[in-house]
Amino acid sequence: MYHAWLIPLLPALAFACISLFTKQWKWLSATLSIGAMVSGFIIASFVVAGVLQHPELINHPLVYTIRWLSMPGFIVNVGIQLDPLSAMMLFMVTLIASLIQIYSLGYMRGEKGFSVFFAYMSLFGASMLLLVASANLLELFVAWEGVGVCSYLLIGFYNHKISARQAAKKAFITTRIGDTGLLLGLLALQLIFGTLSISSLSQQIPQYQNIPLLITVAVLFFLGPIGKSGQFPLHVWLPDAMEGPTPVSALIHAATMVIAGVYLVGRVLFMFHSVPPVMELVAWVGGFTAIFAATIAVTQREIKRILAYSTVSQIGYMMMALGVGSLTAGFFHLWTHAFFKALMFLGAGSVLTGLHHKADVWEMGGLIKKMPITAITFVIGGLAIAGIPPFAGFWSKGDILDATLASGHVALFVIGAFTAFLTALYIWRMIFLAFFGKENPENHPKESPAVMTIPLIILAVFATVGGLIGTPWGDLWGRYIHFGTYVAPVANWPLMIGDTLLGALGIFTAWVFYCKDEEKVKAKALAKQFNGLYTLLYNKYYIDEIYMWFNHTMVDGVGRLLYLFDIYVVDGIVNGFGAFTLAAGAGLRVFQTGRLQNYALVFFLGVLAVAVLLAFTGPQATLLLGGVR
Amino acid sequence: MPALAISPTNFVLLSAVLFFIGLFGALTRKNAIAVLMCIELMLNAVNINLIAFSRFVTPQLFTGQIFAIFVITVAAAEVGVGLAIIINIYRHRLSVNLDDFDWLKW
Amino acid sequence: MAVDWSLMNLEIATAVLGLGLLLLGLIIPHSARRGLGWLTVLGLAGILALSVGAWSHQGMLYNGMYIVDNYSTFFKEVFLTAAILVTMGSMRYVDEQVGYQAEYYGILVFALLGMMVMASAGDFITLYLGLELMTIAFIILVALRKTDGKSVEAGLKYVLLAGLSSAVLLYGLSLIYGLTGTVNIIQIAFLLAGGSVSSVLILGLVMLVAGVGFKISAVPFHMWAPDVYEGAPTPITAFLGAGSKAASFAIVLRLFVAGFSGIWQDWALLVAILAAITIVVGNLVAIPQTNIKRMLAYSSVAQAGYILVGVVTASPAGLKAVLFYALLYVFATVGAFTVVGNFFAQTGSDEIRDYAGLSQRSPLSAAMMLIAMLSMAGIPPLAGFAGKLYLFATVVQGYLWLVIIGLVMSMVSVYYYLRVTLVMYRDEPLDPAPITVSFPVALTMIIAMIATLVIGFYPGPLANITDVAARSFFVLH
Amino acid sequence: MTSIFQVGAFWLISAAIIFTAILVVASKQLVHMVLWLAVCFISIASLYFLLDADYLALVQIMVYAGAVSIMVIFGVMLTQKPDIKECLLFNNQLKLATLVVIVLLALTGGMTYRADWFVSGGTVPADTIAYIGQLLLSKYVIPFEVAAVLLLVALIGAIVLAKEVKPGARSRD
Amino acid sequence: MNNFPVLSVILFAPVAGALLLVFIPPDENKLIKAVAATATFVSLALTLYLYLLYDKSVGGLQFVERIPWIRDLGVTYFLGVDGISLPMLLLISLIGFTAIFASWNVNMRPREFFILFLTLVTGVMGTFVAQDLFIFLLFYEVVVIPIYIMVVIWGSSKRVTKEYAGMKLTIYLLIGSAFLLVAVIAVFMQALAITGTPDFSIYGLAQVAFPAAFQRWTFAFMLFGFGSLLSMWPFHSWSPDGYAGAPTAVSMVHAGVLKKIGGYGLIRIALYVLPVGAAYWAPVIAVLGVAGAAYAAFGALAQKDLKYIVGYSSVSHMGYVLLGIASLNVIGINGAVANMFAHGIMAALFFSTIGFVYEKTHTRWVPDMGGLFQQMPRVGVAFVLAGLASLGLPGLISFVPEFTIFLGSFGRYGGLSVVAIATIVVTALFVLRAVANTLYGPRREEYDHLTDIRGPEMVPLVVLGGVMVLGGLVPSLLFDMINSGVAPLMASVTHTLQIGGLF
Fold first, then answer.
1. Which of A129, A448, B39, C383 is the most exposed place for a label (fewest CB within 10 A)?
2. Which value does ipTM take for this structure?
3. Is it the case that chain B and chain E have 3 or more CB pairs lying under 8 Å apart?
4. Chains contacting chain E through 3 or more C-beta pairs under 8 A
5. Cβ-based burial of A66 (10 A; exposed 0-12, middle 13-18, buried ≥19)
6. Which residue range forms the structural domain that includes residue B81?
C-alpha cells in the first residue's frame, strides 16, 4: 500500500525502456508493457486491500509527496494521495488496461508498429494512473495532458490514414480548448489559495467566502472535464477517436481518457459542492449530453461509432450524478461502465477482426453462430448497459436515477429515464443487427483466438457481478466512496422496477424493429417517415460541420489577415525606411556634379548659411542683428 | 576733417569689394587660368586688410606686413603649381574650360 | 631670448629627410630609386622613435608662436604613423603606377612636415604656412599620376578650390588680426576671454569655419573631397584621409578650443550642427556608390563628422576623444586604401563589383578591408567602437540628438560596408588568379589590423596617452 | 590719416583698384585679363605706399606685377587653342553666383562697416626694410624656413607636373 | 573559489578552435568538424561543471574574474555568472555543441563556416558572462557580422532572397543596438555625474539612483534595443525572414540563444539598473508581449514554409517572455528566464530537424511533404517532440515556465494573461497542423529513397530532446538555479522602487 507510487512508475519505465532500447524485439516489448501493467494491478489490489482495512482514509487520505518545484510564492510538492477513490481507480484502470493489453497481443498481431503500440499503451496507462493517484492539481494536470497526448498518438496510430491524422488532431485541439479553461482555473486557485495540493485545498475552499470568484474558477475548471470527457459541446472528438486501433478505443472510452474528466470533478467535488450553481451546471451538462448523445447513437450505423456515442451518453450520466451531488452513484456507474464498455469495445474489435474491419452493423448479422464467445459476452455487456438486473449496469444506473430524484431534479430524472430507454434501444438495435437475424453471405467470420476472448470473458464476469458490491443490501461501495456523510441506501422498489421495465422496453422495441421482421421494413419506414429528424441525428446535429466552418473560416481567416498585415504593413514600414534612406542617398548624390565651380558655389552657400546661423542664432544674436557691437 | 578721415573701415570695405569681385570671377569664369587670376585678386584683398591693420593697429610690430609677405610667397607658389597642373591637363583634354572637367562626379 | 631648438628636432629631422630624398633622387640611378621607399620608411621610423623619446619634452618658441606640447607631439606621432604605413603600402603602387619615386617620397615627407608645423603652430602665420605647405605638397601628389586624366583633374580641382578656401581662411584670419591686433593664438584667447562678440569677430569666425571646414571636408565644404579622393593615387588618398584630416583637426582645436574658448557658446551649436549634417550626408551619399575609392571617400567625410563631435564641448574629454579617434582612424583608412591600391595595381579596377571573391583571391586583403570598414562603422570589438564611445560620451548630456543621429547613421553605414563584404565573401571570383600581396603591403595590413583589434579590445593605454596629451593642451591655454 | 592728399589718394587708388579688378573679371581676352591684373597689382602696391609699407609695395610689384603676371602669361600662351574663341565667357551659374556674391558682400560690408577698429596712435618707423628683415630672421624664422621649404616643394612640383611625359616614360620609372 | 579562470576558458575555447581551424587545410572536412565539435564540447563540459558547482544557497555572482581594463571609463574585464546568466550560458553551450552536428553535412567552404560559427558562439557566450556593460557591448555586436556572412553564403532564398533577409536582420539589430548604445552611454555619463567615479560594471550602475525622468527615456531606448533583438512586436519582422534565410546552425543559435540576449539584457541590465523606468514601461511591455504572442501565433497559422512557422512561433513565445518580464515579480521573471531557456532548447531542436528535412527533401514547403514518419521516424520523433514542447505540453520543458509566467502576470494583467493563455490553443493548432501535414498522411513515393538521420546527426535529437524531457520532469533543476539569481535581483529592484515610492 505504501508502494502505490510504483503503480504509475512501472508502465512509465516500460515506455522508456521500449521506446529507447527494445523497439526491435516485438514480444519482449509487449511482455515488458504487459508485465508492468499487471504488476501494477497486483500492487493496486494490495492497495485496495489496504484501503479496505483503513476506513479512516476516507476522510484523511494518505498523502506522501516530494518537492517538485519551489520558488517564493509558488511551491509544488508532487506525490501520491491514497483514499478509496484513487485506490478504486488504480485497481480498475490497471485491471482493464492489463486485459486490454493482453487482448491487443492478438488484435495487433502483425501490425507494423507493434512495439510502438505497446510503448504508447504503457505511457497512456502510466499517465492515467498518475492522474488518478496524484496529490497535487498541477501534477494532475501534467498527467492529464499526458493522457491527452497519448490519446493523440494512439488515435493517430495509423498515421498514414488521413482520417486518423485528422481525428488525432481534432481530439487534441478539442480537449486542449477545455484544458485552457482548466489551466486558468488552476492559476486562479494557485493565486487565491497559494497552493494546488488537493488535500489542503479541500481544507481551505469550503471556508472560502468570495463565492462569485469561486464560481468563475469552478466554471473555468469544469471546462477541462467537458473537453476530456467529451461532454457537450466539446464531445465532437470522441466518436472520431475510434480511428485508432480498437483496443485504444476501449481504453480511452472505458478506463482512461474520458473518465479522467469525471474523476477530476469527483476529486474536487468539494469545490463544486461549495458553489451550488456550478453543481447545477454540471448536472445539466451531463444530463443534456446523455440524452443528446443517445439520440445520435440511435441512428448510427458503424458499430464502434454507436458505442462511442453511448460512451458520451453514459459519461453524461456520471456527470449528472456528480452534479446532483452523489459521488457514490457517479463513480459507481463509472466503475461498472468501465467493465461493460471495455467488454463491448473489445467485442466489437473481435467482430471487426472477424469481418476484416467491416464496421457497418447493417452488413452484419447472425454472427452469434460463427463467433459465439464474442456474441455472448457482448450480449452480457448489452444487458449490463441496458440496466437489466442483476447485471452491473442496473445497480449503478439505478443509483444515479435514485440520487437524481432524491435531490429533487425531476426534469433531470425524466431525461435520465428516457436516456435509459434509448440506451437499451440503440445497444440492442446494434446487437440484434449484428449478432442475430440472418447471416450476411459475404461475411466469413470466425471466432477470435483465446488471447482475445479470455479478456472478454473476464470482463463479462465483472460486467455481471461488478455491481453487486453496491446493492442496497450489501453496500460496500457507498461506505467507502461517498462525499460528505454516508447515508446507507434503502431499496427503492418502484424505481428499481421502473428501471428494469425501461431497459426491457428498450430491448423489446429494438427486437420489434430489428429482429422480429427480417427485412427491417418498419425501421426503414420509420426512418423515412421522420426523414429530416433522421438525417439531422445521423449527421450528429451537424456540429462537426459548424466547428469545421468556424475553424477554417474564422481562425484561418484571421491568421491569413494578420499575415498579410505583417508582410505588407509592418514589413512595409521597415522596407519603407530602407527605401527612403537609399533614395536620400541617390538624391543627395546629384549635387556632386563634377563641376568645380558648382562646388565653389556650394562652398560659399555654406559660408552664407554658417554666417546666418552664427549671426542670428548665437546668444548675442539680438545685439548682432543691428550689426552693432 | 573727420568726415573724410580714412579709417581702417575704408580699407576693409575696399578689400571686401575686391575680394568679392575676385570671388565673382572665380565662380563664373569658365577658363581655368582666369579663375586662378581671380583667386590672386582675392588674396590681394586679404593683403590689403593685413597691411591696413598693420598700419593702424600694430604700427611698430609689422605683424601684418610680414603676414602679407608670406601670403604673397604662398600665392606665387600656388600660381606656379596651378599653372603647371593646368598645362598638364591641357595636354590631356586640349581644353582649359572648367566645364569640361567632370570625369569625377557623383 | 634663448631659443631651445631641440624642441624642433622632429621638424628638422623631417626636413632633412625630405631634402635628402630629393637629393638622392637626383644622384642615384633610376633602377635604385625603388629603394627610396624603404629609406623613407626607415627615416620616418627613426623620427617616430625620436618623437616617442621627445614625449612630454614641452615648451614654446618665441612666446607661443611655436608650441610643442604633448598634444602636438601626439599629433605628430599620428602623422608619422600614417606616413609610415602609407609609404610601406604604396611602394609597389608607386613603382608601377606613378614613377618619380624621389619626388613622390620627398614631397610626401614635406607634406608630413607641413602637418607637423600645423600641429605645433601657435600663431596664424605659422599655422597658415604649415597649412599651405601641406596643401601644396598634396596638390602635387594628387596630380602626380600625370598619365591618368582623373589624377590631373583631381589635382586641378584641388588646387583651385584649396586656393579659394585658403583665401577665405586668410580673410577671416586678417579680420581677427585686425580686431585683436595680434596673430598669437594664446594672446587672442586671452583677449577674447571676456566672451563678448562683435560682428566682425563673428564674420571672422564664419570665414575660419569655412576655411578649416574645407580642410576637414565638413559638409557643405566637402564637395572637393570625393572627387580628389577618387582621382588621386590611392596611397595619397589614404594620406589625405588620414593625415591631412588629422592635421586640419589639430588646427581646428588650436583655433577654436584654444583661441575662441571664450566665445564657446557661440560656436558650439554650430559645430554640432555641422557634425550632424556631415555624418548624415557622408553616410547617405556613400550608399549608392559603385567605385570603392569614392565610397570610402564619402565614408571618410562622414568620419570627419564623427571627429567633429569631439570638438563640440571644447572639453579635455572631447579633445581626448578626437586624439583617440584620429589615431585609430589612421589605421582603418590606411588599411582600407592599401587594400584598394594593391588591388588596383594588379587588376586596374576600383569598381566594387570587381572585388568579387576577394576572400579567396587574397584572404588577407579581404580581412583587412572587412576589419577596416567595421572599425569605421564602430562595430565592437574594433577600435572604432571605443573611439565613438569616447566621442559621443562627451556630448550625450546636452546634445542627445547628435548622439542618436551619429549612432544610427553609423549603423546605416554598415549597410554599404556590408555590400562590399557581400561581394568579397559570397561571390565567386570572376578571375580566380590570386591577388599577390607584397611584403611591405602585407606588413602594412597586418600592422593596421592588429592595431585596430588591439585598440578595440584594450583601449586603456591609448586612452591614457591621449588623456595626457589633451591635458597638456589645456595646461598651455 | 587725415591729410587731404592722403584722402584723395586713397579714393583715387581704390577707384583704380576696383575698376581694374572689374576689368580683369570682365575682359574676354585672357591676355587683356593679365594686363589689367598687372595694373591692379600696381595700384594695390601704391596703396601700400600710402600705408607706409614701402617694402611690401616693392615686393608686390616684383612678385605680383612681375613674376606672377609673367608666369600667367606663359600659362596663357601654353594653353591657347589654335582658334582662340571663348564662345561663352561665363558658365551657367552666373545668376546664382551673382546673387550669392552680392549677398555675401552686403553681409560682409554690413558686419564690418560700423565696426570701430582699435587704432593705435603710433606711427610706422622710417625704414621698414631693416625691421622686417630683422624680424624675419629672428622672430619669424620658423615661418620663414617653412616658406622656403614650401617654395622648394612648389618648384619641384611645378617642374614634375609641367614636364612633358615622354612616351615609355612609365616603363622606365 | 579556486582562481582558475574557468569562465575565460569556456569563453575562449571556441576562439581557440577557430584559430586552430585557420591552420587546417580547407578540404580536411571531417577534421574541421571534429575540431569545431571538440572546441564547443570543452565549453559545454565546463559549463555543466559550473552548473553543478554553482552554490545556489549563496546565489549572486560566482566564479568571478575581474581585471581592470580601461581605467578612465571604469571598465573592468569582469566575468561572472549568477542564476540568470548560468542557464543562458548552458543554453548556448548546448546549442553551440549540437549545432555543429546539425550542420555536419555542410561541405561548401566548411572551414570558413565553422570559423565564423565558433566566433558567433563566443560572442553569445560573452554577453552572458560579461558583468561589465562595456565588455557586454563588445560581445553583443561581435555576433552580428558573422551571422550576416553566414546567411549570405550558406543561407537559402525562399519568399525573400537571403541577401535581403541577412541585410534586414543585420541592420535591424544594429539600429536597435544603436539606441541601446545611446542609452548605455547616457547611463554611464549620468552615473559619472552623480557618483564622480567612472564605473561600467552592471552592479556598480545598479547602485546609482538615477532620476525618474532620466530612467524613463533611457529605459525606453534600451527597451527598443533589446526588444528588437527579442523580436518584440512590432519590431519582429526581421525574425521570420532571417530564420528562413539563415543556414540551420545560425537559425538554431539565433532563435535559440541570440534572441534571448534581448530578454537577458532587459532583465539583467535594463530592469536591474533602471527599475523606475521598468516600472513605468512595464504595462507597455505586457501589451506588446501579449499582442506579439497572439499576433504571431495567428501569423504562424497562415504559413506554409516550416521555417516561417517556427519563426513566427518563436516570436509568439518571446511574447510570453515579455509578459513574464512585465509582471515585475519573482515568479513571472523566473518564468521568463526559464521560458527563454526552454524555448531555446525547443527552437534549436525544431530548426535542426527542419534543417535535416530540408537537407533531405530539399523543400520546406509543407504542402509538398507528408507521410515522412514512414521514411524518417527519428526525424519525426524529434519534430513531434519539439512541436509538443512548443505547444507547452506538461512533462516537457516549456510547460512549467509558461505556467509560472501566467502565474506571475495573472495577478497584474489578468485580461492580458487570459488572452495569452488562450493563445496556446492557436499554438497547438498550427503546431499539430504542421506535424500532421509533414509527418502524417499517406506515404509519398518520391521520398522513399530518403535515409533517416543517423550517427552524428542524432546528437541534436538526443541531447536537446533529453534536456527537454529532463527539464520537464524535474523543473527544479532549472528553477532553483534561476530563482537563486532572480530573487536577489528583484529584491534590490523592489527596494529601489519602494524608495522611489512607485508601489
1. A448
2. 0.91
3. no
4. A, C
5. exposed
6. 8-95
